């Protein structure tokens, strides 16, 4: 489980084609501190499992295998050597929940539609798959490329977020341009509520049916 508070801007330093998967090598000295084989690290909001930790003169890196399913259903397939990525380690039990509960399970991808500069922040409009729009509400939480954000405006096929200077400086959202894909994870609590309400409704319908 993650919080959507990015710890470090990492870099893809190598991508190995494994046929039905790819092995990413990612530079990230902060998130690799104390990490070992089998640990989880979120890369642009996608929970990946550490295969190896590499430390040498080029800096500390970790490798992670990314299945074809993940490459197809997330924006990781669009990354190349030199791409910057948002990195976060899982939240420690008893730690502070600075953002919101994030699973690292991408629900879909969106696209940067528009950016509007203000004096102290920036408004970013992002396209949203129609099937996810029911989980996105004004002032609710959403994860964009692993960053926990508050929704400003929610439309049928888009939403907007307001990015403060810290977010612009310390995450990839500061350099994303119109047309760039981003990973989206909606608030898991909304999905649980929907499922529970659906079951309750179904039970009541059965009770009143002659």
TrEMBL record:
Pathway: Cofactor biosynthesis; riboflavin biosynthesis; riboflavin from 2-hydroxy-3-oxobutyl phosphate and 5-amino-6-(D-ribitylamino)uracil: step 2/2. Keywords: Repeat, Riboflavin biosynthesis, Transferase. Residues 1-100, 101-197 form the Lumazine-binding domain. Pfam families: Lum_binding. InterPro entries: ATP_synth_asu-like_sf (IPR023366), Lumazine-bd (IPR001783), Lumazine-bd_dom (IPR026017), Riboflavin_synthase-like_b-brl (IPR017938). Lumazine-binding repeats lie at residues 1-100, 101-197. Its EC number is 2.5.1.9. It catalyses: 2 6,7-dimethyl-8-(1-D-ribityl)lumazine + H(+) = 5-amino-6-(D-ribitylamino)uracil + riboflavin. PROSITE patterns: LUMAZINE_BIND (PS51177). One of its GO terms (molecular function) is riboflavin synthase activity. PANTHER family: RIBOFLAVIN SYNTHASE (PTHR21098:SF12), RIBOFLAVIN SYNTHASE ALPHA CHAIN (PTHR21098). Catalyzes the dismutation of two molecules of 6,7-dimethyl-8-ribityllumazine, resulting in the formation of riboflavin and 5-amino-6-(D-ribitylamino)uracil. This is Riboflavin synthase.
């Amino acid at each position: 489980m993650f919080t959507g508070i990015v710890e470090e801007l990492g870099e893809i330093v190598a991508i190995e084609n494994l046929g039905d998967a790819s092995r990413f090598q990612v530079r990230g000295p902060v998130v690799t501190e104390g990490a070992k084989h089998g640990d989880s690290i979120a890369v642009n909001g996608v929970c990946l499992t550490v295969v190896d930790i590499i430390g040498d003169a080029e800096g500390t890196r970790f490798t992670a295998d990314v299945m074809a399913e993940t490459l197809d259903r997330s924006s990781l397939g669009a990354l190349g050597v030199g791409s910057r990525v948002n990195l976060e380690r899982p939240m420690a039990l008893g730690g502070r929940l600075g953002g919101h509960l994030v699973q690292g399970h991408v629900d879909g991808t969106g696209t940067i539609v528009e950016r509007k500069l203000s004096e102290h922040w920036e408004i970013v409009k992002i396209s949203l798959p129609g099937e996810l729009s029911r989980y996105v509400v004004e002032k609710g939480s959403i994860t964009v490329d692993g960053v926990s954000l508050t929704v400003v405006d929610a439309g049928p096929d888009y939403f907007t977020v307001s990015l403060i200077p810290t977010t612009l400086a310390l995450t990839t959202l500061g350099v994303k341009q119109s047309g760039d894909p981003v990973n989206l994870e909606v608030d898991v609590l909304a999905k649980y509520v929907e499922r529970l309400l659906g079951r309750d409704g179904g039970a009541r319908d059965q009770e009143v049916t002659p």
